[in-house]
Structures are given as C-alpha cells and as structure tokens.
Write a structure and sequence with these properties.
Blueprint (H helix, E strand, L loop, with lengths): L5 E5 L6 E5 L40 E4 L4 E4 L2 E2 H7 L2 H10 L5 H12 L6 H8 L7 H11 L13 H27 L12 H10 L10 H14 L6 H10 L5 H12 L7 H12 L5 H9 L18 H17 L5 H12 L2 H5 L6 H12 L6 H21 L36
Helix pairs in contact: 1-8, 2-17, 5-6, 5-10, 6-7, 6-17, 7-8, 8-13, 8-16, 8-17, 9-10, 9-17, 10-17, 11-16, 13-16
Bound molecules: carboxymethyl coenzyme *A.
C-alpha cells in the first residue's frame, strides 16, 4: 500500500522534523501547532492576511478552476446551466444538491412564490428611508429587519425552521429590491404577482405603472435569468465568507444575509458593477480610453470590472454575459457606453501592465452596461447581484450549519502592539505622539 502523502517540515530553531499529513492538497493548520520552540510556545500558526491561501471549509457546492476559467455548480458547467435552466431550477440545484425533476421544480416554485409578500410593517419600515437613500443601504437594512418579523429564524439548528427561512429569503429579496427602487422614485409599491416567473415578477414589481401588468420582453426576462444564474454562487468570495462567519455564531439567516449583503456592497466586490458605469461615464468617449488607462497604470485608481482573486485567465461569467448582452442590445438597441467598454477591453488586454498581472474583465464589467440597456438604474446594480447571491449565501450557510468540523469562526492574530507597560494616572500623563512611540 502506498504511504499517504505528507509534508516534512524541519524547524531550523530546534532542528526537529515534523511529518504533516496532506489531504486534498492541503495541510491542516492545527497540525502546525505541534511545532514549538519550547513548552511555553503557543505553537506555529500561518499568517495569511486576506485569506489568499487558506481553505476555510470543505464544500460540495461550487467548483472554480481560476487558471482554466472553469466554474461549475454541483458539477454542472455554468455555460450549460445558463443556457438551459431557469434561475429557480439553479437555486434548487445549489440548495438541494441535484437538478429538480419537473414535479420537484413545480413544487419548489410554488413554495418560493408562497413567500414573496412582505409583512405590511416591513413596507412601513421601508417608508422611513430618505428619498435619496442608496437602494443597497435600504436592501441590507430591510433584510436585517425581517429578523424582527420571523421569531422562528433563531432556531438555526432545526432543519424545518432553516428551510422556512430559506424559502422566505428567496421569495422576498426581489420584493425588497423592487420596493427600494419604487421608494427612491416615490412610486407606490407593487405587490408580487405569483403567476409570473421569478424574473418577470421582479420586473413587474419594478416597472408596472397604471397598466394591469408590466409585460417584459421575453428576451429580457431570459437575459435577467441568465444574469441571476451567473451570480448565484461563487464559493468562498468575500460576502460568502461573511455569511459563513456570521452564521457560525448561530445568528439567524436574516441578519447573516444582511451582513453578507453589506460585504457585497463594497466597490471591490459586488459594488464594482455600479463603479464600472461611473468609470465609463468619466471616460466619456472611445478617444479618451488610452489616457485613462495610462492614469490607472500610473497608480491613479483601478480599472473597475477588471481583475479577480481567483480567475487568472478569464472569467467564464464575463464571456457568457458578453454574449447575453448582445441578445439584449438586439432588443434595446446598443448602449452608448458599449463602444467605450469595448475599446477599454481591447486596449487593456493588449497592454503589458494588465497582461503581466493577469487582469481580465470580470463579471461586473459587462453586467453594468447590460443592466443599463435593460432599463435598470446604476444604483440598483448591486442589489441585482444580491438577489441571486442570496441563494448561494443560503446554500453555503446550510452546508456550514450541518458540517461537524465547523465551529464559531475565530481567526488568530499576530500582535504587533506595545509590550506590557506601567499604567500612568491621568494627571501625570504627558502628550505622547504616535511618532514618539
Ligand atoms: N486595475 C488596475 N490594476 C489592478 C486591478 C485593476 N482593476 N486589479 C488589480 N490590479 C493590480 C494591483 O494594483 C496589483 O498591482 P501590483 O502588483 O503592481 O501592486 C496587482 O494588480 C494584483 O492585484 P491585487 O490587488 O493583489 O489583487 P486581489 O486579488 O487582491 O484583488 C480585486 C482582486 C478583484 C479586488 C482587484 O482586481 C480589483 O480591485 N478589481 C477592481 C474591482 C472589481 O472589478 N471587483 C469585482 C471583482 S469580480 C466580482 C465580485 O467579486 O463581486
């Protein structure tokens, strides 16, 4: 029988050699604790700011190969899911582990649509926001506020209670998102219409005026479905890590999703799609692209919608979005920013700075111009990301809650502050500047 693989580590301080087992190409950080200089030593830790090389969990949900540009949900290539499935079908896959049969899908759809309404007090809660509040700020706060409506949400160890909250969240996030938009325009809220598909209902809640129902172009509901599928999960990204981390304290899923959405709102994560549009507006025209790229290379800002921690070749989602955007533009006519975006992509992809650093357009680069062409306001873009990602956050949360290896998330630190020092009573203190320290 072959010997199990291991890593031999020699500690030059003590000359001792340690044999650390390797599983799935990783060593357990806790196995390093035995490496000590002496009995009082706490033991060896790894230092990994921003988790660039740390696996925080074992997960069977999403697979990414960043070098090859591969993304799969539960083993299925994202390209096939985007082309052939509806968003709710993919949501079922992510949460339940298998693609649904027709009967399962019909039941699942029925279950989700039974939870699309908001409690009237939640509607009133939304009314308290200023007219110019950012939709993402309203979304985060309102999702958190749902925790006050559903008392059973705290029973996170009860599988039936967990499932109820999962359905409530998937059903309600489009309603909350649409209400934030209607609120910012001072328009009355539109109640959900459960005869419509998930995306068509969302568009109806956003854009219905006095007509009985807003009828979205089928190509646009399909495009939105594709975008939702592409955004549904992306393994241990910043917001999912927050979802797992907050959820690990057994906080309820409403506040955990709100915390994850807060992480998503940052411009380096889901907020990037709104920033791309702002950037394209600043650039203004195709002719200004070279000067803008030069500025970025000189250290003034970043190309928003470029670069990724994991994808170092191409982002497969960006490819699908580029294709879907073309279908949208056939219906809506071209977005005036499309020309600037294409030129920016062309110049960046041929520039040594971006080639060397492996910076490619990511999912947010094209989603913004596509959303804009479909009639969504830039302020709503990150909310459009949060709706489908709620499914991924919940799938990851469910997996974490039942994983016997998981405990409350609690990293260590390397302390760099002052050693123990004598306390000085306030009347005896002199001003010490941080520089003097
Ligand atoms: N424009 C210009 N330079 C960049 C960019 C960019 N968009 N991204 C990274 N770099 C440079 C960075 O300055 C660094 O250069 P140097 O080695 O000279 O210091 C090098 O590339 C490596 O970058 P990094 O910051 O170490 O990479 P990271 O893995 O920590 O960050 C990222 C990944 C996505 C946060 C970053 O690429 C970025 O800020 N991109 C722009 C924002 C964006 O589009 N975010 C959406 C990401 S995809 C969807 C999502 O996660 O929600």
């Amino acid at each position: 029988m072959a010997t199990p693989p291991s890593l031999l580590i020699q500690d030059s301080r003590t000359r001792r050699v340690f044999d650390v087992p390797i599983h799935n190409g990783t060593i357990r950080a806790m196995d390093l604790r035995q490496i000590k200089e002496g009995p009082d030593d706490f033991g060896m830790m790894t230092y990994d700011p921003a988790f660039q090389n740390t696996a925080s969990c074992r997960s069977a949900i999403t697979y990414i190969d960043g070098d090859k540009g591969i993304l799969r949900y539960r083993g299925y290539p994202i390209e096939q899911l985007a082309e052939q499935c509806s968003f709710l079908e993919v949501a079922y896959l992510l949460l339940e582990g298998e693609l649904p049969t027709q009967a399962h899908l019909a039941h699942w759809r029925d279950e989700v649509t039974h939870h699309t309404m908001l409690h009237e007090t939640t509607k009133k809660f939304l009314e308290g926001f200023r007219y110019d509040a950012h939709p993402m700020a309203m979304f985060i706060s309102t999702v958190a506020a749902l925790s006050s409506v559903y008392d059973d949400a705290r029973n996170v160890l009860d599988p039936a209670a967990r499932r109820r909250q999962v359905l409530r969240l998937i059903g309600k996030v489009p309603t909350i998102a649409a209400y934030t938009y209607r609120h910012s325009l001072g328009l009355p809220y539109v109640y959900p219409d459960n005869d419509l598909s998930y995306t068509a209902n969302f568009m109806n809640m956003l854009w219905k005026m006095v007509e009985p129902r807003y009828v979205a172009h089928p190509a646009l509901t399909k495009a939105l479905d594709i975008l939702f599928i592409l955004h549904a999960d992306h393994e241990q990204n910043c917001s999912t890590n927050v979802m797992r981390s907050v959820g690990s304290s057994q906080a309820d899923p409403f506040v955990s999703v709100a915390a994850a959405a807060a992480a998503l709102s940052g411009p380096l994560h889901g907020g990037a799609n709104e920033e791309v549009l702002k950037m394209l507006a600043v650039i203004g025209s195709k002719d200004n692209v070279p000067a803008y790229v030069k500025q970025v290379k000189e250290g003034h800002g970043k190309l928003m919608g470029f670069g990724h921690r994991v994808y170092k070749n191409f982002d497969p989602r960006a490819r699908i979005i580029k294709w879907a955007a073309e279908q949208v533009f056939e219906v809506t006519g071209p977005n005036r920013m499309q020309e600037v975006a294409l030129e920016l992509e062309r110049i960046a992809l041929n520039d040594e700075y971006f080639i060397q650093r492996k910076l490619y357009p990511n999912v947010d680069f094209y989603s913004g111009i596509m959303y804009q062409a479909m009639g969504f306001q830039p302020e709503l873009f990150t909310v459009l990301f949060a709706i489908p990602r709620t499914v991924g956050w919940l799938a990851q949360w469910q997996e974490m809650i039942v994983d016997p290896e998981q405990k409350i998330a609690r990293p260590r630190q390397v302390y760099t502050g002052a050693p123990e020092r004598e306390f000085v009573p306030i009347e005896m203190r002199t001003l010490v500047t941080s520089a003097a320290r």
